[in-house]
């Protein structure tokens, strides 16, 4: 869709979570990332070389990738001049936000001037069907979370990478902008029209070999008042054989919803399984993926042990420990 | 949005359910309907005067309303010539389907020729916010169903009509094309982009007087694999104080999903209540609305009595019995 090397644009990200798109690209395609651009007050940092737009052009950057999200998915007003400068210097700009680059006259003008391109990866490019609910061949695993931004994409990518390493048949199925940038294709689910959400996921995960796994990236949370409908479409469209529960134990309230505490892993398990078994009676919860980035190693291991005993299924942090035990659990279903 | 008198276009509807949009308009605005147009093989019938397009023009019809839905919500190819004839004769055409009248060149040309207008009521005209999940003032009631097309809109309209008759403060909140045609405003929820679904319902049912009821039209079903995400957004965006369970007892498989039986009323109650109480812990299931149109009076009354005893809450068919007992139940919550 667009070419490396990338300059990751982190804008004025208020925290690391706001730059999860950039983090995802860097974690899974580090070889494609040559630098980052941070505005004043930016609280995110990928740990790569900071570049000005001039330096980026001199370094041969092909694409500036907007790797930051603000609430509502809008292109920040303060970003326009920076992105415009990059476009005028001949670099493409890629963006997965709700508001489109192509709707910003200043950017359209800058791209024309620089002979560069605007890539709105968020716009669905396929006419999705209405979901049929018909049973499909092959295996599917869906990551579901107690909240948004708890590591569902990371978990799915780690499982897919581990499966491939073991010589198993596996495909990462991207459902969000970052995942699509990483995988090269997918469904930008949160931009799909309501009636076609589940159908788009059926389309993304078609009939396959009996021993092939689709590892489906999750979105939102069944318990997140803003986005639960999107998650529901993944559960019913994805027809999962296995669910991986994803959680971030230090989160006190749900992302963007200060009035809501997170559900427990038991609540997530019971609700997600009940809903998933409606379309696939054999669906099971295979394991738990915990994002322990805000805990010490000792705390993390103690927490994982505790959760594993309480829930009776493997609980790991794939970032610290790899996804081997999750893959083992999927193979034993 | 467009003017009466209407000619209801029933096209080649394979059954009465396919013409539920026309039926809804006729049930709630009978004074606006002057006739119907049925093509060969049409199995739907509103019981009003059949008219040719020529007769409709002579009778002073202002708008031909497309009152038929086929799977996927597409404008039938065989409809184009009829609708084109109406447009050329100077009548407007209104339509709530996925495919837009404005995207059919033959219709655009016919409208230009006839000086008439195309009304695509399905296109959202508002930029909806992301849902905040914040508690709102006023009371809200949401109709949820064991399946699509079981009478959720009818139930909501009947409750609203009964509340107004009793002098209570009530507003019918339309979430589908038919409801919007009836009420004059609302959210065409199934056409809203995924991320904004719950936000659109918050927008539709804002803060209100403590004793005011929003009676929210339901969509889809939490158990319908194609549309459950849409229903989920209604449950979390609507923040209901009360749920009315809607059911059609003679339905053997879910609409459009021949592989799926309907869930039980108990399954619907437990799942819907669990999900609704996440955003409104005080939410209760107030009553059950049963569509007994395919049962005899005797069968219907026996069934309702049985359900009421089993579930412990009022069970009525508002079409046969009115919505009085449902309103009473809502007032007693």
Automatic annotation (TrEMBL), chains A, B:
Domain D-glutamate N-acetyltransferase-like C-terminal: 130-327
Gene3D superfamilies reported in the protein's UniProt record: NAD(P)-binding Rossmann-like Domain, P-loop containing nucleotide triphosphate hydrolases
UniProt xrefs under Pfam families: DUF1611 (PF07755), DUF1611_N (PF17396)
InterPro entries: DgcN-like, DgcN-like_C, DgcN-like_N, P-loop_NTPase
D-glutamate N-acetyltransferase-like N-terminal domain span: 38-124
Highest rank taxon of the organism: Bacteria
NCBIfam families (alphabetical): DgcN
PANTHER family named in the record: DUF1611 DOMAIN-CONTAINING PROTEIN (PTHR40690:SF1), GLL3100 PROTEIN (PTHR40690)
Protein name: DUF1611 domain-containing protein
Source species of the chain: Pseudodesulfovibrio cashew
């Amino acid at each position: 869709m667009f070419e490396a090397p990338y300059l990751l644009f982190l804008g004025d990200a208020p925290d690391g979570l706001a730059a999860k798109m950039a983090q995802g690209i860097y974690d899974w395609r580090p070889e494609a990332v040559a630098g980052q651009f941070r505005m004043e007050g930016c609280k995110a940092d990928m740990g790569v070389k900071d570049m000005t737009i001039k330096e980026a052009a001199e370094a041969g950057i092909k694409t500036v990738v907007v790797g930051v999200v603000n609430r509502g998915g809008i292109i920040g007003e303060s970003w326009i001049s920076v992105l415009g400068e990059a476009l005028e210097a001949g670099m493409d700009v890629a963006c997965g936000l709700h508001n489109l680059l192509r709707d910003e006259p200043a950017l359209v003008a800058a791209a024309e001037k620089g002979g560069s391109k605007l890539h709105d990866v968020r716009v669905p490019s396929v006419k999705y069907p209405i979901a049929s609910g018909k049973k499909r061949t092959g295996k599917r695993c869906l990551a579901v979370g107690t909240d948004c931004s708890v590591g569902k994409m990371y978990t799915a990518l780690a499982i897919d990478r581990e499966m491939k390493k073991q010589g198993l048949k596996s495909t990462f199925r991207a459902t969000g902008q970052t995942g699509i940038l990483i995988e090269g294709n997918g469904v930008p689910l949160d931009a799909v029209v309501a009636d076609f959400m589940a159908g788009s996921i059926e389309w993304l995960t078609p009939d396959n070999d009996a021993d092939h796994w689709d590892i489906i990236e999750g979105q939102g949370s069944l318990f997140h008042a803003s986005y639960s409908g999107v998650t529901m479409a993944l559960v019913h469209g994805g027809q999962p054989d296995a669910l991986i529960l994803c959680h971030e134990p230090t989160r006190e309230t749900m992302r963007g919803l200060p009035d809501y505490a997170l559900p427990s892993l038991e609540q997530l398990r019971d609700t997600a399984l009940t809903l998933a078994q409606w379309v696939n009676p054999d669906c099971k919860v295979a394991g738990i993926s915990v994002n322990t980035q805000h805990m010490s190693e000792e705390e993390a291991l103690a927490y994982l042990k505790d959760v594993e005993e309480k829930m009776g299924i493997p609980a790991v942090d794939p970032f610290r420990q790899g996804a081997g035990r999750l893959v083992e659990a999927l193979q034993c279903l």
